[in-house]
């Protein structure tokens, strides 16, 4: 069992802190600039203290996890004070471990590769956790904690993690954005997005069963210029989405010509 302090009370902190306690660890402190956010999360935890302080020199934690937006990590690092033997890790997919250079061989990364939103439950046993550390001792602690949560633990360098995050943004954030656009298109015609649910499920399942390139269907793959033209006309009141349609069509055509 490890004691862990959390900086941040957002999406990642919300899921991670509760999952960590479920497998037997204890959250000692939750930091948030707006104390109400930390208080709300602490209510879900065993005996954590909400705090607005980044002076954690009195903490009993073995590990401090920084789960704040990427652009805020440096500011937090600058103000954060912890005892010399405490491991400090951020949870970002893109930021280098070197952002935590101030903590010397106690610097680390604990990146859970999943999309987290407070209102949606996540099964942590299936979440790949990517770890990196500046010393074997810090890596051992992160490895213990990661394997207590998940069956999928990977040791990656900062450079590998950045590439993984790039690919994850395309697979998750971009795919989700396209679903949001398709919902808007249906909304404008007073039709229900639920109609697309079986298609989205089947598309996702297929992309996991075979190489996604082999699973491609549709007018761009078939080179059906007439249908493509019709769709572009239907999108003429939505020029931004028309541009996205055109770009993706060109990308599919060129991938399947190769
Ligand atoms: N969401 C995901 O799906 C996901 C998945 C994997 C990794 N990550 C990574 O995990 C980290 C946290 O992401 P998140 O989605 O949990 O972020 P988030 O939901 O936006 O939460 C951010 C938290 O940080 C605090 N905060 C914001 N700016 C701050 C600052 N300048 N100084 C101190 N605290 C600040 C906020 O609370 P106050 O405003 O009250 O301070 C809030 O509690 C990021 O590095 C992200 O890349 C996210």
| CATH level-3 fold name of the largest domain | Rossmann fold
Specify the structural class. Answer: alpha/beta
CATH homologous superfamily designation of the largest domain: NAD(P)-binding Rossmann-like Domain
Elements, N to C (H/E)? EHEHEEHEEEHEHHHHH
DSSP strand (E) fraction?
A: 5-15%
What are the distinct ligands in this entry? NADP nicotinamide-adenine-dinucleotide phosphate
Question: Can you offer a commentary on this structure?
Answer:
The model has no long low-confidence stretch (mean pLDDT 97). Helix content is 46%, strand content 14%. The chain is α/β, with parallel strands linked by helices and 258 residues long. The protein has 9 helices and 8 strands. It folds into 2 domains: 3-156, Rossmann fold, CATH 3.40.50.720; 162-257, N-(1-d-carboxylethyl)-l-norvaline Dehydrogenase, domain 2 (Orthogonal Bundle), CATH 1.10.1040. The protein is elongated, with a radius of gyration of 22 Å. The termini are far apart. Helix 3 (73-79) links the parallel strand 4 (63-66) and strand 5 (87-90). The chain has an 8-stranded mixed β-sheet with strand order 3-2-1-4-5-6-7-8, covered by helices on one side. Residues 8-13, 32-34, 37, 67-70, 72, 75-76, 91-93, 111-112, 115-116 line the site of NADP nicotinamide-adenine-dinucleotide phosphate (NAP).
